Amino acid sequence: MSSACYLDANIIIALLFPTDAHHKNSLERVYHLNMQGTRLVTSTYALVEVTRNTLHTLSQLEQGKYIFAEPLPQYIRLLQNLNPNQRCEALLNYIISYIKNGFHIEVIEQEYLYEIETTNNTKIAKLFHEAIKLSWINIRTKDLLHIAIANLLKTHGVKCIITADKTDFEPIKQTLEKDLDLEVEILTTQQS
User: Fold this and answer.
1) Domains of the chain
2) Residues 168 and 145: beta-carbon distance below 8 Å
3) Which of 94, 135, 163, 166 could hold 8 in an S-S bridge, CB 3.0 to 4.6 Å?
4) What mean pLDDT comes out for the span 12-35?
5) Alpha carbons 188 and 21: distance in angstroms, whole number
């Protein structure tokens, strides 16, 4: 099995928005990894973040603060006639197609992540049990869930996490590499 890198939601968001400070570096890194034959994966959890953030920015489009990568703008216009639930679903489907076809990013979702485990007579999904076991890592819960997913996706060859979240991941980078054997690559705006 070839090695894979797990992409944090902020990398996918950066790919969608040329105005994002990490867009250029995310684009370059994703293309470079594709050329090397490294598999790029993400999770449905990351897609929740991406969809929510993308919908949130729709209201700020008129202000010119955000610009969507082509061909997103044409598609976004079609969303305006949908009810909120339909809009979310349609946007999610487009994002999945965009990252799969444009960047060869696989969305990995496995039933075993949600298998029910029992601890102290309490049933808990494997993913959340993993996050609880990793709660000693000093990071926000939303990022801890990405770490738990990446750690569980080692069975799919995941060996690293790529993120643009320097503030949260820099302090724990060595810990993840040493204790979980997960390499952490933090993209900065200064990278070339």
Assistant:
1) 4-186 (3.40.50.1010)
2) no
3) 163
4) 94
5) 9
